[in-house]
């Protein structure tokens, strides 16, 4: 989390939206073999927990149950050029959105993992145009193979640490130029966040 309080928020609905829209993050844990990270799809339960799954052979899988871990999600980010400032006698920076979640992790039972997978599939299939794929299209052997290869986890989030660094220290006119510059550079999502969240 960025140390500047200007870049923080207490808006839990915003955090839930970030988890929903980004949907992918990194789980960090210090293991007996040293620090490790795993990349995984994420699904919020809506009541303060986040679910995810890892391959059974992942370096974190055997250490997560009962541990306190850290999950990070990275939203839109981009370089900010001084050409967009009123005074060019300055330095570049980087605008970004990130969310850190810290909490206790528990391993899910088979039923919880299955529910998580069906919910994640339904969510992501609904975002793709056309006839959605359904889990029932997998054979029993294929679906069973998936379950033999993965483990499901749920983190009860005890700390939410967001960073919304969106050029808040700049004037409204400069922020408008920065947003326009990001949009012209092909980063409309970051431009929209600068216009809406950083004001």
UniProtKB/TrEMBL annotation:
<protein>
    <submittedName>
        <fullName>FMN-binding negative transcriptional regulator</fullName>
    </submittedName>
</protein>
<dbReference type="InterPro" id="IPR007396">
    <property type="entry name" value="TR_PAI2-type"/>
</dbReference>
<dbReference type="InterPro" id="IPR012349">
    <property type="entry name" value="Split_barrel_FMN-bd"/>
</dbReference>
<dbReference type="Pfam" id="PF04299">
    <property type="entry name" value="FMN_bind_2"/>
</dbReference>
């Amino acid at each position: 989390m960025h140390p500047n309080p200007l870049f923080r928020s207490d808006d839990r609905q915003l955090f839930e939206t970030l988890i929903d829209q980004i949907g992918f993050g990194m789980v960090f844990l210090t293991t007996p073999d040293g620090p490790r990270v795993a990349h995984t799809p994420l699904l919020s339960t809506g009541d303060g927990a986040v679910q995810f799954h890892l391959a059974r052979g992942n370096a974190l899988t055997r250490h997560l149950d009962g541990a306190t871990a850290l999950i990070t999600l990275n939203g839109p980010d981009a370089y900010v050029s001084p050409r967009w400032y009123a005074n060019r006698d300055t330095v570049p920076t980087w605008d970004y959105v990130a969310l850190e979640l810290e909490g206790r992790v528990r391993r899910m039972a088979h039923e919880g993992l299955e529910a998580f997978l069906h919910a994640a599939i339904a969510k992501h299939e609904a975002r793709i145009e056309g006839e959605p794929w359904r889990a029932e299209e997998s054979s029993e052997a294929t679906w069973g193979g998936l379950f033999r290869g993965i483990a499901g986890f749920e983190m009860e989030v005890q700390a939410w640490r967001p960073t919304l660094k969106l050029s808040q220290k700049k004037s409204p006119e400069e922020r408008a130029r920065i947003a326009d510059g990001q949009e012209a550079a092909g980063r409309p999502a970051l431009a929209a966040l600068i216009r809406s969240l950083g004001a």
